[in-house]
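The following block was generated as part of the benchmark described in Methods. Ligand: alpha-D-galactopyranose.
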Amino acid sequence: MIHFDPDQKIFRLISDRSVSMMAVHPAGGLGFLYWGKTPAPEVEQGFTQEWEEKTRDITPNTDLNMVRRDFADFGHNDLRTPAYLVELKDGSRITEFHYLSHEILPGKPDFPGLPSSQVLSEDQVQTLRLTLIDQPTGLEIDLFYTLYPHRDMLVRRSRIRNKGTQAVKVLKFATLGLDLPPEDYHLVSFGGAWARERMFQERPLLQGTVRLESRRGISSHEMNPFAMVTKGRASEDQGEVFGFALAYSGNWLLEAEVHQTGWLRLNMGLSDFGFQWFLAPGETFTAPECLMAYSPSGFDAISQTYHSFVRDRVCRGKWAQKPRPILINNWEATYFDFKHEDILRIAKTAAQTGVEMMVLDDGWFGKRDKDDSSLGDWFVDLRKLPKGLPALSKEIHDLGLKFGLWFEPEMISPRSRLYEKHPDWCLHVNDRERKTARNQLVLDMTRPEVRDYLFDTIGRVLEETQVDYVKWDMNRSLTEVGSPSLPPERQGEVTHRYCLGVYELMERLNKRFPNVLFEGCAGGGGRFDLGILSYQPQIWSSDNMDGWDRLLIQYGTSFCYPALTQGSHIGSSPNQITRRESPLKWRALLAMSANLGVEADISKWSEGDRKELAGYISLYKEIRPLVQFGDFHRLEAPYDFARTAWMFTSRDQKEALLFIFQSTPPQGPGVKPVCLRGLDPALLYQIKGEGAAFTGEHLMSDGWLPKEFQTGRVPTLFHAALYRLQAGN
Ligand code: GLA
């Protein structure tokens, strides 16, 4: 819970396994005193004493580089990276915010228009609001610290208010800024590219500044807005880990600066790239929220914290807690070249193999025979689908399947009816060339009339056709970011306003179609973030379904995002992007480790393959509750011994699923047993089909190696297996 000590002027935010502390120093500034495991009394005394000594006599000459700060300012003698930057009327950028007031509120304030994790009564959530003021200008900053004490989650947000009489320009405004004391820190980030999203990357933090960011207008394939700082190198069960997950889908930034003193400064929030917010008197600007979690014991524990929080508090709506249907998608099966009969043929075969939903991907609208036209024209193409969408949907429902449809709402093709009618509706700057990517331009989502058009046209399709699912795609970065509908002084706001516009449209469609399951997508996993997840409870994690690459992608994704939020499909072999072959079983077990789907023309598969696929689908139906709602544990990383293992356990620890992926025949250390996690040490687990039973204690400390993975026995490259564990007495 949150306590304030008026003598020391210290705020203590105490959760079940961690504590964070902020303090006001006598000169009025704010300090971030501590974050970590509950400190022993003598440890706490140590750093509070040090804080008092350092801050007692703060004078204008005190070197603030030596002081632990929270949301640090710019322009004084703390020369480290500031959390914000404001340009005043006279052109100066120097401000100094001092403590004004605070309040400890029950629950969490509402911030309409931005993703916001929910609060349930059992959470016993409290929010500390600290208000700071820059006296000469009358600017105020509110810092919010919302504590979920039993979930060990601290949600931070910031807000700036112009209570002065003159307009200012906000040039940078992070969500949080804090300092951590000297240590051998490492930074774990999830970088990548299209078809290679969220690769686990780890680097020591040496003196200097590391910037992780997106400048693409979406959270990006290039770098995911989730990162961790560890003390030394952490492993799955060892090392202190500090996590930062930003609930935002546009340009973002994390700065990690190791100062000459060894102190680590961390800021996270909106990117300052091309950013400027004009703040007139009376106006307020609110930053997105950031979810901060701490683990005293490695990555596994921090992933558990994020997984359950994301599943239960970030994802909203009817589908958030519902098992997700097994879908088949026609994209890699047909690309743009399909007719009514092709979709029906795929759907029929899929229904026979146990699939539950047919998703019609790109190409059903306008005159879209390739990727060079029709985005924005959300009217069915009667050349391809002469009976129309409602009839197709009905025929698919008659097969016992649900029906899903692809949209790319935020885009406009220069070759489209929409562009002919509204050439000014795309993001652009007058008299500058509009650069296309994938032959398309980006709609100006800052404009209400554009959002209304999309709400009406997409809404009409969803109303007329029985649509159970929507894949919401977004296939390019923002360039020539400008909106002639905004005045010159507000052009620096366009990227953020774009993102707010997207959220607004998503929210309106969610409200109007509460039964529709929305899946986010951006050229695969280019917008896999908590912002999207709070509107759309699952995301297509990558266009790349190749056996090896996908293993790395799902491994990286799993650090923050639970399996329930990841769409994963069984594609064809050889893979259509990498041309690499991998066995069906391998591809199936990978996809079955998340929300299972299929993406191939299985009507053209051999009878044998279809039968095998049907077997996986029926097995998935049995294990789905465990995969989608159980606890996920990484056991072995793909990078170590060509063997990856992970598992799921039920909440009562009575059931478990063990997945092993051996990418080359094992050699040397590859044959060591796999040590399991998350079991009850005292229970005896039967391993189905293996005729073996071991205690949880044995499986976790000594491990177990199935016969088929012992030296010389693995028959092929890419050998995968799934074992089901059931606790007896
Ligand atoms: C993106 C998506 C794919 C597919 C295509 C269609 O690349 O990630 O899954 O929908 O667009 O154009």
